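Backbone geometry tokens:
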Amino acid sequence: MIRRALLIGALCALGAASAHAGLDPATRQLAHDIFRQLIEINTTDSVGNVTAASEAMAQRFRDAGFPENDIHVLGPTERTKNFVVRLRGTGKKRPILLIGHLDVVEAPAADWSTDPFKLVEKDGYFYGRGTVDMKDGDTVYVTTLIRFKKEGYRPPRDIILALTAGEETGANNGLDWLLKNHRELIDAEFALNHDDVGIYTDNGKPLVFKIVASEKVYADFDLAVANPGGHSSLPVPDNAIYQLAEGLQRLAKYEFPFELNSVTREYFVRSQTMEGAENAADIQGILATPPDPGAIARLSADPMKHALTHTTCVATRLEGGHANNALPAMARATVNCRILPGHSAEEVRKNLIDALANPKIAVRYIAPSGELLETAESKHGMVPPPMRADVLRAAEKVARSFWPGAPVMPVMAAGASDAIYANVAGIPAYLVSGQSVERDDERYHARDERNAVESFYREVDFGYRFLKVLLESGRR
């Protein structure tokens, strides 16, 4: 999923959630049943089975009257089959693709206060692995398409839903596999993804509604030094740990260039009115041509603002040596990078080599499979196109009916989701969701993952209304 590091710290609480009509009892029950079914199918990489979840959703669509030739369960392994379904429209416009992942991160039962693979309702929350990442979003999409079918609704374009495997691990990524092997099943004009928070709240008050219109590229690199080692009683200058440590110190001081794209520029244009006078002036400085170096430096002191305007690389793991009384023959570190759109992992690997300034430190790309590669994959983030006006208008209209007063902000995520595969394949992807989360209670990938009960049902309602408004805005 998108790692939710976004500029929200300076935003003030504006207004309260709207008293909208809400879901009718039948739809509420349908959403609950789908949510429970998905949560209670273990889809972890270690022992879970995404195929079982795909088959369960396929049966729901059969029961809802979708023809068999519009339902597909397929994938590279027996446990990682993806689900694809199509709701036929009038065909006046190219299809829209809805994407979500069915797999979840590991959830050791001993760490939880509830069974992570049972949907448990207590204290106003739904508990269970996937309640916010992202079986709630999968439920929103499944419920919405079944509602459309029951209503006899024919949109001006086909709606394709792809629920996939491998987003959390990167191995056997289902969206990537479908694009490479069955593009015809999911080809679309653009895509919507639900894999993110839509609205952050502070004690229930909405802060900002965001649309993720671009995201960074995730890449891990292995940094390693090897030398002969020896007995610790006879130290020599050629010490693998010292050499790696010196290189990492240089990397810590290395700064990737400041850069804005169409999405981050629009974000700062909109956000300056919610900042204090000094920050607002500095935002004007970075929006200028050329940007003011002093303003860049001052805003970059904020880790969130820095992440939205720079590629970042940081050491996250370190190991070295093999015995207390031996000189280290090997030292290695893992460096995690979040790369601005338009730049490749290979480009950044070469930047790392330059920053380390030591040819004895080998820099290799860590592929999703774990394999170490001398040359990084060429995958890079597509330079984001201008924000789609229809997506923005629909999001603004519906979000303001649910959370009046909360500003609607196009943003670039500092993390990454599998929407990157759609973007690289030429299908622009936008992350729009009605998921509401307290800013101090984010439990993605954590123990006791939870979603507030009424927030979940509001999320389902928002998803249906947003998609209907978006589709109708394009009807000719």
Q: What stands out?
A: The CA atoms of residues 95 and 188 lie 5 Å apart. The chain has a mean pLDDT of 91.
